[in-house]
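User: Predict the full complex structure for these chains.
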Amino acid sequence: MKFVCDGLSLSEAVTKTSKACAVRTTAPIMECVKLTAKSDEVVLLATDGELSIRKTVKAEVFEEGEVCVTGKLLSDFLTKLSEEEITIRTGDRGMEIGYRDASSFLQTLPAEEFPAISFDVGENYFVMKQGALKKVIGETVFCCAQDDSRPILKGCLFEFKERLEVTALDGYRLALSSAELLSHNAEKSIICPARTLVEISRMLGDDEKEITVYTQGGNLLVNAEGTTIVSRLYQGEFIRKENVIPPSFLTEVTLPRLELISSVERAAILIRGDKNNLVTLEAGADDVKIRSNSDVGNVFESVPAHVNGKDLIISMNAKYLLDGLRALSEEECVLSFNSAISPFILQNKDNKESLYLILPVRNAQ
Amino acid sequence: MKFVCDGLSLSEAVTKTSKACAVRTTAPIMECVKLTAKSDEVVLLATDGELSIRKTVKAEVFEEGEVCVTGKLLSDFLTKLSEEEITIRTGDRGMEIGYRDASSFLQTLPAEEFPAISFDVGENYFVMKQGALKKVIGETVFCCAQDDSRPILKGCLFEFKERLEVTALDGYRLALSSAELLSHNAEKSIICPARTLVEISRMLGDDEKEITVYTQGGNLLVNAEGTTIVSRLYQGEFIRKENVIPPSFLTEVTLPRLELISSVERAAILIRGDKNNLVTLEAGADDVKIRSNSDVGNVFESVPAHVNGKDLIISMNAKYLLDGLRALSEEECVLSFNSAISPFILQNKDNKESLYLILPVRNAQ
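Assistant: Here is the predicted structure of the two-chain assembly.
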């Protein structure tokens, strides 16, 4: 294999592709990017077995061929090399990177060891604005489970109805967001890994452009801005949000979102060493009181609010409350409760496209 | 104690003062800031037993008094509070922070437990430009030892001769810098803790303003921009730089500094997993070759150079070489060697006020 290409383009492409490389694995080939030089381009491909990213770079190819090299190493090396023109060639000593009159060698692995990834486009697809896809990902993905106790919760549920409805939950809280579908011929629903969604979101560019996402046979494929992402989808039963979100509420509180955030942030400072990280809200006649209490001190504040329904005292993990409040966007937000031990929800006052549900914690104080 | 003051001023002052608080200690009082309200100001004081920082904030004092509260907690809390006017009052429940119609309480410790710090100004002093003091600190302090095996090496040696000469070394490398003294009545030399120097450097403002540093009885005191720093000095014998820096060299290499840095950075990427982090320089007729070699690959580059003296191959820790090269400032730098096993030095080509010495490593390759 031998090709000459622009160093900066190659560097950027390797850095983006290698996001799919496995880390801390016992199979070194999974930490590699595969380079394939053919006709007038070089195709870069990385996969961790679940997520795969492919990018193409223009090149003058003198000898076709393919080779694998550790993604992180190649990416870091090329980042430090701001040459306009570099020559890549394979030989006995590995992959030679030539620049000016210097040349360096990186250890390679044979391309045959690299897993085969299918880039076939299935029959099922959905089409939406790039900005809308970015929005539903951003509004939900942070609520996905982090640990492996229930692997399916490490993904977001995409339901194709009149609109796209996206749900994420981790057993303590739930996020729901929706957006317009321009057209679709999709399965009823898919469950997409959070990590894939984060990479798709990074790949998206112009908010107004359309994007088509293909799904079939437990796989997803999406192609934008010169990058192709292929990912396994999760199979199994996702918790039905209809069983979790209460249909009605006894207390509805409307209040200024940023004031509530900064008040809860102060309350959270005093309890950051505590295991439960508990903050207490008290909905009264015309305000919400925010309290936290620990060995190091206590916070007692109030934020003016429009309270509709019966009074209530409820405690929750301050982090979950802050995450949800920060993901909303309007000046005013609405908190809806039933009782101190029932799940409650946060929403924007006007635009109800997104919703956060949090399980409260019984407070012994 | 009760006072009213500007929230932002207090927040900034507490954040700066609490830099001197001890961390991870078994004596909670050492993690505290002491607040003393008297006449029309509040004095903030923190110390870890070695370094002490004092700042003063204007306040309307209704009741004089003093109290101690954890520095990090107070600093974080006040940072989240952007109120113009806050009221601080001590009572049964600790320190009450009042803002708008809310109030929060922080646990306090009695001021009597706080160690006494002397702010007496001694007879000895030196005067220099703030910019010059900042320069000599920045050019040396990063070479101080990090571990406790020889505690004295965790400080910089200040020698008062015609100019101020500052030395730092950690057993593998040495940094030397000098600057003009405007006047002085100082001891022959002092050894100042690196941490104190970093805080002094942060405190300095206008480069052209003069600053007076007082030293006496093993202590240092400096006062600028409304902040007073007091620090213990280290006592003992510092290694004499005259015994370490070779008086003459057999090979002198002049070459472009930034080109050498980026070449060594690339070489360093391939060896970052290795224990010795070895990069090899080879001074030839009209260039310096840069090599590194590891399991994952090898780098072989050359940088054009003016070589004066005999050829030489020498290996060293890439981090030490990069630290030294980055601390120099001119386009061209000079590397001076005697042999592959003798210490070598780095300097700017023209301004020789600073110097870095590095011990080479025998390379078995």
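Chain A touches chain B at residues 70, 73, 76-77, 80-82, 94-95, 101-107, 262-263, 265-266, 269-270, 295-302 (CB under 8 Å).
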